Fold this protein.
Amino acid sequence: MEALVSLIIGVLTACGVYLSLRGRTFPVVLGLTFLSYAANLFLLAMGRLTIGAPPIIADAAEGYTDPLPQALVLTAIVISFAMTAFVIVLALKTYKETGSDHVDGMHKP
Amino acid sequence: MNLLLVVLSPFLGAPLSTVISRLGRLHAAWFAGSITLSTIALLIPSAVTVFSGHTGIQHFDWIPVLGINLSFRLDGLGLLFALLILGIGLLVVLYARYYLSGRDSMGRFYACLLLFMGSMLGIVLSENIIQLLIFWELTSLSSFLLISYWQYRQESRSGARMALAVTGAGGLALLGGFLLLGEIVGSYELSRILESGTIIRTHPLYFPMLVLVLLGAFTKSAQFPFHFWLPHAMAAPTPVSAYLHSATMVKAGVFLLARLFPVLSGTPEWFWLVSSTGLITLLAGAYIALWKHDLKGLLAYSTISHLGLITLLFGISTPLAAVAGVFHIINHAIFKASLFMAAGIIDHETGTRDMRRLRGLWRFMPHTATLAMAAAASMAGVPLMNGFLSKEMFFAETLYDISSPWGWLLPTGAVLAGIFAVAYSWRFIHNVFFNGTPADLPKIPHEPPRWMKVPVEILVVLCLVVGIIPDLTVAPLLAVAASGVLQAPLPEYTLAIWHGFNPAFWMSMIALAGGVLVYHFFSFFFSLRQSAGEWPAMKTLYDFLLEKLFSWSGTITCFLHQQSLQRMIRVFVSFALILGIGGFIGEPFIFTGERVLLPADGVSLLIAAIIMVAAVSTVMLHRQRLAALIMMGTVGLGVALVFIRFSAPDLALTQLSVEFVTIVLMLLALYFLPQFTPAESRFSERIRDGLLALGAGSGLMLLTWAVLTRPYDTIAEFFLAESVPGGGGHNVVNVILVDFRGYDTLGEITVMALAGIGIYAMLEGLKLTGSTEYPGIRWSEDRHPVVFSTFARLLLPFALLVSVFIFLRGHNLPGGGFIAGLITAVALIMQYLANGTDWVRARMPLDMHTVIAAGLLIAVATGLASWFFGHPFLTSTFGNLHVPLAGELELASAMAFDLGVFLVVAGVTVLIIANMGSIHSESHPVTSRNTMH
């Protein structure tokens, strides 16, 4: 299972990096979203993988997973949404201002 | 006694005065005046105790671990300065009311003036020296705003920048000096420092500390060679000059010398550094003042010279010299403020300050002329004026060491400076008010408004009464201030006009006679000289350094900033890779640890396969943007499944709702953007990027593997154990968010709110046309499909109910403010999608800005509420409550905080999507038939 999670994180990172190296704004935004998926999973994985032990205190529970990375990731998901929104709106604004959706604001062949 | 309130009231008044100025220009002046008056009233009860020999200390803990406290001190020296700051401040407020023209913003002027006043009060009333330094820097900043008040003038901006650069650099040196001083004494409190004179003077760090402190004092007090900023600061409006350069800003430096006099003085280092700087500044300032054609320029250099005189007195270090220094601080403040004001009146009523054009104004403004003459006489040191008394004390003190080989140097320098001072004072009077008739003045001169002269009159009357009956007026204040400086019994001295034919008297007479002679023999040369003698060296050096700094930083920026985002990201990723790999080079590293691994099951394999296939397809399809977006959505849902698998239900819920909102947002954005990405990168570039991506991906994969296979220690035990007894909640993740780490969450929702407002600002006025280029596919004619809109409306109450449920149970079961906020947002966004922006706008009672603001305020108020119960910020409390249907509910105060989170998250999300939806300038081209709504 650990290998599987590592592989997912690796693939998401690779896709994220490749897309953020593209020259147009839309793929770059997709790439950033991929990178935040990877980062969130990576953060969660730092608390190690536990199955069937959510950090909700109950008498019947046998153990709990580490709640701290989860708290970190929860806010990270919401914040990265705000960031994605900010970047995509920036992309729209540049498209309007420069007439091109190239990341440098102009088309350089 | 409440010194905190004394210092704070100008700060509180500053923002208010800008608000009040909107009601009417002059209201700001009245308001600033009443703030100053009430601050004086607050100070008076404490002042009474100071005269009975009491030093008042008010102490609040701030960061006690570091020795930094909020503490105030009122002794004689602090009181004298506070009175000067407030008294002259009040007169300046009155004067500026008539000086500023209709085009100048009164509110901004008085706000900056009050800020400055508060900062000065902070300096002179501080007990903790770190706190003193903070106020010291605040004076630099607020004086920057005052000097650059006429922002549209180039010389105002450059003068303000120069003042800030020089005094700010001095402030840094002072910080170093104060840290060393605190290190030597073991405390930053003045009471401790003032008792530790011997320890300080014998400490090995004494000399570096002294140099740093003096750098701070000398830059502020415009001592040679840092004097050059002061004449350039004359670009400020004259009321500002009258305030900054008589009683306040430049006096902060000599205040510091006086404050630390008992512990720093008495060593050869102090004597040589301070007295030589003082003597050079005294002489040079007086000499240059003589050559100035600009009235304010003359006064500026005269100020430099008088500050040099005060510095020299503190350098001489005898107790009597210190008394004379304090006395001259008072006198100089009074006569220099009145002279600046008089110069301002002349400028105001004639339109020029050039002494080559100003002539014979006596006939036009005899009243102003009389006042200016009295003040100038005081500056020159004419008997019966206050300036005479302190100057005579100064002359007497320069003789203290006359028998030593170089002992004649001080009195000679003093008399020479005295001669120059008389000459420039006499020039100021003779040249401006007599000496022929005015030459082509821009305006016909006349007397100013009655009340504009009142501040000058008050100051001139003070010059006279202090000069004639010192014992009945200034003596008690001087005594209490001087004992505050010395922190020891006062030496014997008498304040009298007539001390007999002693050497000091003859020195005064030589200066008076010599000054008049110098003026009459050399006045011809003054008017010949085109550019009066500055020291070009310092100003040129400053300009040179500034220019070099700008060009260096420009070069570095150009080198790093390559104008291409792709190249910079490539460099960034490569650098991260190199650093990451570099860490492992050298010693053998075992990638696999010894932790027991989990077996992989079929469902997990399937989820992993979906995520990876979808991710790779996104990359493959990224030119076809819509398809890529759908693939990305699949990845997001897969990630939510991973969260569920690994015991993170809260994360899964959050991820699901965020995924929905993100995809809607991207779809909206895509509508306005090109639908396809052109293939413009070369094959080799794609290979290179692919290799980089593979490198980064496999790096992170190996790193995750290495971490996951190793055991670890966690601090989770604390949160798991304390969640129920300490936070009153069973859902540990939620308790961490709203209770244990509530401060972090507060920061995060603030960031979220800022992002929302930023997006709103970017979308403001943005109009785009929708894309038309999806080949072969026409836009649907049905804008709002009936089935969709009907069901969306039906769904709304249920969705909101779910969100309330999720919110309420969040403290104990998966849910909480973040998730509930997102669900509410999703429910509302559905309405926008199904029924259109206008439909929702018409029915939505709330403005999202208000919701966001309310959320932030609720969160902060919950935090502040715990202060009222004597607990630290954001302490939470809880109790049980039984709610029908929802069951047993633990009602924690953290719930209110969570409500704030809920409102911010919902507000920002809806704000973003709703505004994105309304930027299209025209709807997509609907073909043929009429649409039905």
Observations:
- Chain A touches chain B through 85 residues (CB under 8 Å).
- Chain A has a mean pLDDT of 89.
- Chain A is about 65% helix and 0% strand.
